[in-house]
Design brief:
alpha+beta, five-stranded mixed sheet, four-stranded antiparallel sheet, 33% helix, disordered N terminus
Length: 419
């Protein structure tokens, strides 16, 4: 039997603050008993894996019960405070003749108490994991980094969450959000996640993180199909669309609405319109592809792809769903204000002559929209309507009116005008 397989090695873990991690590296005998909180289910037995010859352990029900935070450093936020986990173990070989005490520290972690802290906590972990130097004093990181290094990290982050990375054009636009018109290649932590963007109430990272989250949860397939240009400015989108045919549209991430995506399209007079951004809340109600399907003003995905050839596979089935109580579920539909609706789309709106209706006796419809069936013709022929002439004044000079023929002729004339 392999010696390793006969060992029983217990491992237990403890939370450590940044200062405690520094003390541990200076004097592990003194610092190994320090702790910054309590972790439940923090012990386990390492198991030998014959396949790779390694010992491993899994903590499946570990839970942080209590955490002690350090005093704040200046303007440091709670989501910037770093902790780590200390893994400790002790085992002996040869009847306790050789006793080994081993330990190691995890990568930094951030402790949060609410989901709204996730964004900023992720920024802290990303910056530390990406830019910390080997052998550093816990948890020192550079205050600023070169844009090219940050761009690589953003690309890898976006790819891991959405399945497709960022193009050079995407990254160029993202850089403009950080630098504006400044000629610089260095990005500071403050620029990244402390200072708000010009004219906005959110930071660069909050803007990028919200787009990444929206894409992952609602737009992943469309992003991978390259149906979304995404990272392009409003002005650039208008330049691209201004010389395209009416109904050409593109999808871009909003500059003003955090976690929003908007539709820009070419109108009847070559003007470019921008729809108010959709957010995650909207897509929980109706998906982007179905919203695009709803809008007949949208015809070609930029530069010239018919929209159905791109989005039809993502449309929700239009088959009526009858609920258990016999009711039919109503469908929501995205519409545009009347003054933005093209003439072709107006003709297809409900109650237009081209609309086909069910012949339901309870429907409120114009008779001109209904075809003349044989039953309707027989009904008119059998109706005794000539008695209506009794109510006409005697001095009208009309001796007799064939009301039946008058109604039939009126219907025929109306159909000719409509056709």
């Amino acid at each position: 039997m392999d010696v390793a397989s006969s060992l029983i090695i217990s491992v237990y873990i403890k939370p450590r603050s940044e200062n405690q991690a520094k003390d541990l590296l200076r004097n592990d005998v003194k610092a190994k008993n320090d702790t910054s909180g309590d972790i439940l289910n923090n012990t386990g037995i390492m198991e030998f894996q014959p396949g790779n010859g390694q010992l491993s352990i899994s903590f499946r029900n570990m839970q942080l019960k209590k955490i002690k935070r350090a005093d704040k450093k200046g303007s440091e936020a709670v989501t910037e405070e770093k902790f780590c986990i200390l893994f400790q173990s002790e085992f002996s070989v040869g009847g306790n003749e050789l006793v080994f005490q081993v330990w190691t520290l995890s990568l930094p972690v951030v402790v949060t108490v609410h989901g709204n802290q996730e964004c900023n906590a992720t920024a802290t972990v990303l910056w530390d994991n990406a830019f910390a130097e080997p052998g550093r004093i816990p948890f020192n990181v550079p205050d600023q980094v070169d844009w090219s290094h940050l761009a690589d990290q953003l690309n890898m982050k976006f790819m891991s969450h959405t399945g497709k990375g960022l193009s050079a054009t995407n990254l160029s636009y993202i850089a403009s959000k950080l630098f504006g018109n400044k000629d610089s290649s260095m990005v500071s932590w403050t620029q990244f996640n402390k200072d708000t963007l010009s004219g906005r109430s959110f930071t660069f990272w909050e803007w990028f993180y919200a787009i990444q989250k929206l894409t992952k949860e609602h737009l992943k397939d469309l992003w991978n199909d390259e149906a979304i240009i995404g990272f392009v400015s409003k002005n650039q989108a208008q330049d691209w669309l201004s010389n395209r045919p009416m109904g050409t549209f593109l999808l871009r991430f909003s500059d003003s609405e955090i976690g929003g995506i908007t539709i820009a399209w070419t109108g009847e007079r070559q003007e470019v319109w921008n729809l108010a951004p959709f957010t995650s809340k909207d897509f929980h109600i109706r998906g982007l592809a179905d919203r695009i399907k709803d809008l007949n003003s949208l015809v070609y995905l930029y530069p010239n792809k018919p929209k159905d050839s791109v989005f039809s596979k993502y449309y929700t089935s239009t088959v009526e769903s009858v609920l258990n109580d016999g009711y039919i579920r109503a469908n929501l539909k995205t519409t545009l204000p009347d003054h933005l609706t093209t003439s072709g789309e107006m003709e297809r709106q409900p109650f237009s002559p081209e609309t086909v209706y069910d012949m339901n006796p309870n429907s409120v419809q114009n008779m001109d929209e209904l075809p003349m069936t044989p039953d309707m013709s027989r009904g008119l022929a059998e109706m005794d309507l000539n008695h209506l002439t009794e109510f006409l004044p005697d001095d009208m000079g009309i001796p007799e009116i064939d009301v039946q023929q008058l109604l039939v002729n009126s219907y025929i004339e109306s159909r000719v005008v409509m056709d």
